[in-house]
Amino acid sequence: MSKMRFFALNELANRKPIEVVLPSKNLSDYYSSHVFDKKTMQEFLPKEAYMAVLEASENGIPISREKADLIANAMRNWAKGFGVTHYTHWFQPLTDGTAEKHDGFIDFSDEGDVIERFSGKLLVQQEPDASSFPNGGTRNTFEARGYTAWDVSSPAFIVDDTLCIPTIFISYTGIALDYKTPLLKALNAVDKAATNVAQLFNKNINKVSVNLGWEQEYFLVDSALFNARPDLSLTGRTLMGHSSAKDQQLDDHYFGSIPPRVTNFMKDLEIECHKLGIPVKTRHNEVAPNQFELAPIFEDANLSNDHNQLVMDLMKRIANRHNFNVLFHEKPFSGINGSGKHNNWSLQTDTGVNLFAPGKNPKGNMLFITFIVNAMMMVFKNQDLLRSSIMSASNSCRLGAHEAPPLILSVFLGKYLTNMLDTLEKQVDDKKMTPEQKTALKLGIGRIPEILLDNTDRNRTSPFAFTGNRFEFRAAGSSSNCAASMIVINAAMAHQLNDFKREVDELIDKGNGKDEAIFKVLKKMIKASKSVRFEGDGYSDDWCKEAEKRGLTNINCVPEAILKYETKSAKQVLIGEGIFNETELRSRVEVELEKFIKKIQIESRVLGDLTINHIVPTAITYQNRLLENIIGMKQIFDKEEYEHLSEARRSLVKEISEYVSEIKAQVKAMTEERKIANRLEDIEEKAFAYSNKVKPYLESIRYYVDNLEMEIDNEIWPLPKYRELLFSK
Ligand code: ADP
Ligand code: MG
Prior knowledge:
This protein has 3 domains: 31-178, Ubiquitin-like (UB roll), CATH 3.10.20; 187-238 and 249-580, Creatine Kinase, Chain A, domain 2; 595-726, Four Helix Bundle (Hemerythrin (Met), subunit A), CATH 1.20.120.1560. Helix content is 52%, strand content 12%. Strands 9, 10, 11, 12, 13, 14, 15, 16 and 17 form a 9-stranded mixed beta sheet that branches. Strands 1, 2, 5, 6, 7 and 8 form a 6-stranded mixed beta sheet that branches. Strands 3-4 form a two-stranded antiparallel ribbon.
């Protein structure tokens, strides 16, 4: 056995659970203790400064320099109580994860003495060097300098000795270089559009906010084993590995108890989350062995997204404390269930109404139906754009690939809603409705049962499912930033609602009554978007065929999917709703293509190294052993006996030779293709070359390696195997 694998297994055998102590029996004693939240602000800030923060966060009114100084000073005083010495502007560049640049509070006073200072200027704005963050092509045409600016709507928090201030990140010329900036714009756009539509029903509605509740799936792998797998540690997934004799067939993991080492990790994580005011609530096993899920109570989308990013960071660090590595890759193990990040999405009015929840009376239900139908229409019109928001090298291993669910964007509504829409479609007629028809319709709509709220016939295979009072977007990958899909969903919803409102207004102008106008447009939309509704098994082959007949799109190629960000209709949404300008959109596409190229490039290199330096030599060692054995046999047996007894060994030698030759030839061919691709200047051509010419080798080389793994003596196999990675406790 290689030393690497031997030591890893040895270390694993000696692991003990790391004990965790609750800070207090009462959660409320420490919940949000490390957040400069409203309660803390009131305690530390003069009233006028506190009001300024509220005004800024709720109405976007700028904070004056004087007040910013007051706030910064109060923040520092509060943070000092926790031994904080540094501060950072915390932001979400277009890479995966977050970035921060730490600065000390240290400063010189006017007299030249060393003092601690944190001014309003430093709180509000900072200038990290943007050149090391991805910005697509904008670097060539624009200055690389960027700055971060305080997002007042998300509170500052403390991690270790650092005060973290959530910020947006934009280039010196105003180009957004992060996820937060366009997310805030999309939330604003949907607020305006949804408010206008909601006012058709209730004039008292003045604001619509977006709720997001994410569910984060992940795998845990023991750190020693993780480090002994260069593919896992360098690419986040296993590039080889034969599936274990026992994997998830028994499905006993989902309901099984959580091993103590993992429970302690989860407990530790929850404590840290709660200190940071992140309302994590559920934790459970997932379908695959060593796969788990964490979900908080939903929050305002911007805050919820910050919290998801923060949680992912915390998870990595706390996992290390417990000698685990957390895997966010969407498909770390081939043949085993992948990890997603479900985005539970709903719209809520300032009058406290969830627009995706059935109302208490016919009028409320009309409002509900209006938003449901618009959401459905939004998906129908924006299938490609929605897909582009979740497509990546890693998520494409989980969706749309070999043995993976297809990437068709359909909507699941459940039996009740489906029947209701069918009734609505039939009931309303193009000609003027009689009063009786109207009453019938209203009664029909009035009868949405409460049962909907626990919509039990949930369909787990639908990428966009209505789950009683929200939609659940399940195509997003576990490693993604929720903002990527939230930007697109909310921008597209804003666009859809604006279209809807315009059509309704036009009909009213033509003399239709308001209700009638709404019915007419809804009916048209129900008809038009029918093909996007699907209640069956979204993972089946039949569905792929059926979807094709219906004209729904299904794109597996990553660069092709990403480029759908720039179709005419996508631009109408993203540029039309003011989320991006042309340059920003182009830069985003280039960043995504670049990420894809880099990921495949790294995977291909790592696979090449591993096979040539670890797998092939091991295969040859084993082969030599077999050869010695065969020669020995020849010496002691007579010809007939020898031929009979050595046959299996001889054919094994042949098989191993063939696999080894195949691996060497394919690695060489893959390297050649990589060289050709690397010479391409055009980023799109390069991405397609990586997708079509390089990526297929990852699968085909793996096939031979996995076969070798089955043939070669377990004792000398160099890498920890699937059963060790997945079933170690
Ligand atoms: P599931 O059965 O899908 O695993 P969970 O109860 O684990 O459901 O979590 C679903 C997520 O949906 C949680 O984050 C929860 O807070 C969130 N959620 C519930 N209601 C809403 C809503 N109205 N809007 C947005 N998210 C919601
Ligand atoms: Mg869910």
